[in-house]
Structure formats: structure tokens, C-alpha cells
Amino acid sequence: xxxxxxxxxxxxxxxxxxxxxxxxxxxxxxxxxxxxxxxxxxxxxxxxxxxxxxxxxxxxxxxxxxxxxxxxxxxxxxxxxxxxxxxxxxxxxxxxxxxxxxxxxxxxxxxxxxxxxxxxxxxxxxxxxxxxxxxxxxxxxxxxxxxxxxxxxxxxxxxxxxxxxxxxxxxxxxxxxxxxxxxxxxxxxxxxxxxxxxxxxxxxxxxxxxxxxxxxxxxxxxxxxxxxxxxxxxxxxxxxxxxx
Length: 244
Description:
8-stranded parallel β-barrel; TIM Barrel; 16% strand; alpha/beta
């Protein structure tokens, strides 16, 4: 893990939830003063592919490539190896893919970057999506509380060599207690007060999320729907800067 890289980066990650690269670059530019990392998710990646990663890196941003891979071990390992060429800062895989898949992804990334001299991305495990609650889990055969399932998957991810985890604000504190301080925690579902949930069910304010142990906050709609995205980003940074 590259702790020296983490310490100099803004904890605020902007989610570029658009299919248009030009719009993504414009939105990122509006928060440049407060954001070092931008999230490229399935919406943008499905349209622009690795070109989006390259363009945003050319604009001076680190990229959190959040495409949540989940497939057989060899397929995910090969995909991760190919993506190393573009040097994303972080890359996500679903922990429900299992230990063999996560270990294959980690080995592939380490070996590919060692051979090529490229910077190794942090592999981040996705546990339970923030859009899911107990009823949603129950419908797919998981009959335990959300927090219990998140912690189970978090421990599996750490045992499988993941560098970090995506955790909703409501599970960040128990996950931090379960996995310790050496794991990067990336928290979506962050909303400015008064909180609106949209399609995410497990949300919190920036101060609550950082206070619970998050290293990075992923914020999309509260920034890009704001009249002034830069001012909204500044508000978030100011809120979390007061945490002792």
C-alpha cells in the first residue's frame, strides 16, 4: 500500500456519473481546487472505455476506476492486468466473486506492474452496494443483517490481499474496527445535510463518514447538481477539516 501517496491527496473523490467524456472533464475542472481523485464508473467507462482514464489523468487527476469486476478468477485477473497499463489509482472488484478471484486479481496486478515498472493500483473490494438494505439482501438469499454481511466480506477481502474496501457510511466504523488501520476505506453514499438518499439507502454526512474512519469520500450528485460545484466541494472539505 502506498501510504505516502494517500497522505497528500484530498479525501474528496468526485463521482463523474455521466456517459459523456466532455461533460466529465468539465465537471472535474470545476472542483479541481478541492479534488485530486475522480471516479470513473460504469456509466462513463461503458461509453468511453480506457480513453476516459487517460484523458482525466492527462488533466491532472488520479482516477478511481470503479467498474466492480466480478467474474471467474482468470477473467478478472486478465482484465486487471490489462488495466494496469493506464495506471488507475484505485480499481474495484466485487468481494462476492470469492477469495480465489480476489487473490488472482492481486497476483496479476503485482506481477504485471513489476514487469512493466508501472505504478500498482490499489485493489478495492466492494462488499454490499449502498443501494441495498436487509430486504434486498434477503431476496438474493442472504439472511443476515447488512452490517454482518459487510464485515464478513470485508474480512474475506483483507485475507485475500485487497488494499482497501468500499463501505457505506453506516458500516464504516464497524468495518474499521474489524480490519484495523492498514486498510483503505472508501465511502460512497455521502450527502450534505439535510440528507437526501436518492437510490442509496445507507447514507451519512461527510463529517460522520470521516469521523467513522473513512479515508476517502465519494460524492457525485451533491456536487454535480449544485449551482456551484466548487463551492459545494469547498463546503465538504471545510466540514471534515474540523474533525479533531
